[in-house]
Amino acid sequence: MSVPVTVIVPVYGGLDDVVACLGSVVRHGADVPIELLVIDDASPQPEVAVFVDQFGEQDHPIPVRVLHNPQNVGFVRTVNRGLAATKGDVVILNSDTQVTAGWLDRMVEAAAADDVATVTPLTNFGSICTIPASVIDAFDLAGDAPRIDECAQFVARASLGLRPDVITGVGFCMLMRRDAIDVLGGFDEETFGLGYGEEVDFCLRASRVGFRHVVEDSTFVYHHGGGSFGESRRLGLARGSAILHGRYGFFRPANRRERTENPLAVPFAALELALDTRDPSRRQVLHILHSSPGALGGTEKHLRSLIEALRGEYDASILFPVESGFVLRTMWFTGDGPPVEREMLFPGAAGRVDKLVDDVAAETLRAVLDVDHYDAVHIHNLIHHSLAPLHALEDFDGQVVCSVRDLYLACPNHWLLFRNQAACGIPEDLEVCAACLPPTRGMAREDLEAFRGAVGDHIDVVDHWVFASQSAADYMLRAYDLDPGRIELIQHGAIIDVDRARRPLDPALVTDEPLRVGFVGMGWPKKGLDVVNRVADRLGDTSIEIHHFGKLRADPSPRVHVHGTYDNEVLPELLDLSGIQVVLLPAPYAETFGHVLTEAFVAGRPVIGTSYGALAERIRASGAGWTVDPDDPESVEALVRALDRHRPEILRAAEAAHELVLRPVAETAHRYAELYRRPDDTEPATAGATAPTEGEPRR
Predict the structure, then answer these.
(1) What percent of the chain has pLDDT over 90?
(2) Could you list the residue range(s) of the whole structural domain that residue 450 is in?
(3) What pLDDT is attached to residue 240?
(4) Burial class (CB in 10 A: 0-12, 13-18, 19+), 353
(5) pTM as predicted
(6) CA distances (Å), origin 476, targets 220, 406, 463, 592
(7) Residues 648, 617 within the same domain
(8) What is 21-69 written as a DSSP string?
(9) 484 with 522, same domain?
(10) Distance (Å, rounded) from C-alpha 506 to C-alpha 101?
């Protein structure tokens, strides 16, 4: 018969916990040979010693031994006594734990590799092995009636069985292989005395000679926490930590890296996803975003509208960066009600990702792809993700869609402004880039060549490149030879309620009032604030007014009427209330679409816009405005003065704006639904319907 695994339970006080712990061990047993060794460390409560003696005398499905220390020697020496009294592998089990069905069999299986020294299960109170708060709450594990066995069944069912490596095991329940004990000896009782840190010390010594430590991520053991041995946990932890960091110089940086990369992020994400049941017959899209989907930017609002429009067919998950890593937000739809939403944090470096290919970002995306099934991945932004998604998606078997909302892939200085001032248009002569990138991005010409080379090497990972304007596609084609069959032109559509906000411009406002020009958007030079300030100052001899709507990131001219931040939905109403007849958008960089332009047209306002990029393309196609060179403020001033003299021209352009076909996002959603389908999926998309292209008059 093989040597049994000995479960060593040191006991010191806490009778209720001891009763529950020992009862769970004998109740759940194991298929592998097992024995229970209870060691009473001179417990100050006589009823504890009486109970363990009575327990040892009873008949149990497994062998039970009871030992008594003649005097209290502390946890570490008590464990070492147990190690000396056994011959095989052992499990050190706190007396305030409760084990569950199948626990030991799975832990022994996880320890089967020759280089494994320790195995630790998941728990509700156990350092890195602590399951997510959402799971703890779901099974009332912090309450008076924890549903321990239900949680254990859930963990076993939902686990991915990854058994990730960790720096050290956790002592509430830790299997120790006998061959590791033979090499290293037991715990360091001279240094760690009454406890706290001894199991970490053992594990770090084991790692030095080539052993590993793993977490058995399909096993849950309940831990009441803090109740064992009557010691001050906080003081003990502080003392043990100081000893460990003094003894092992590598431990602090290794521990910091483990917290950042979190080897249990994927197992925990799988558990959180499993709390809610998703209809497996529904398709799902993973969206990659550069910011929280709750932000007020055009990209975020467009994505929310797109997800809502496709809710009848597609569930959605969104991966986005935060200061401490990456968050996966799931949005699963059932019926007409709100989606089931849950958020999970994945590892990542704090702040912005600046590497060409960030390894942690790549591993995070691979992990996300492992924890659930996705039919498609839709990249909306790569900023803050690096180029990692293009690498991580190489083996993804679904469709990869990339919406080019900015020109980051063409140049990391995605504003395409030479030294953040004048439009560069993606020059063929890279010496221009060599003069621009050092001060704007801290990059050399060679870095840009490496960046474009890395993109080019993975360009075929993307099945569909989506552009909201032809000009955006043209810019991208200056940097890469994209397959024409993979290029899709889909205008974003309006992210505000077109039917509610749509209005004509009041002719009397144009003919009877002073000319009021509204500069809309972020108030800083990259959006044209410098141009607006100069124009406002030069118009000081006229009755013409210049107004600004939006957040300010630089100082406006005293002649600019400042209105502050606004919500897109109410912009048309704000333009009415402020008496604005013309909107001014003189950004020096090339827009890829222009949500503000759409909102101005919804409000029936003609627009003065930049003479290149999507603004120029859309204004010229619609006839609903005029284009200007943002590098020539004098020409902008001249146009404004001319419009002041020729008000019928404003009415003409306003009528053109009001007659435009302006589609909401919902009417473009079917185009994306088609792109998300695999080539062998012939079922037609049902979301939305074909609608006229912007620029055609409404009927």
Answers:
(1) 78
(2) 282-489
(3) 74
(4) buried
(5) 0.82
(6) 51, 10, 16, 11
(7) yes
(8) HHHHHHHH--SS-EEEEEEE---SSHHHHHHHHHHHHS--SS-EEEEE-
(9) no
(10) 75
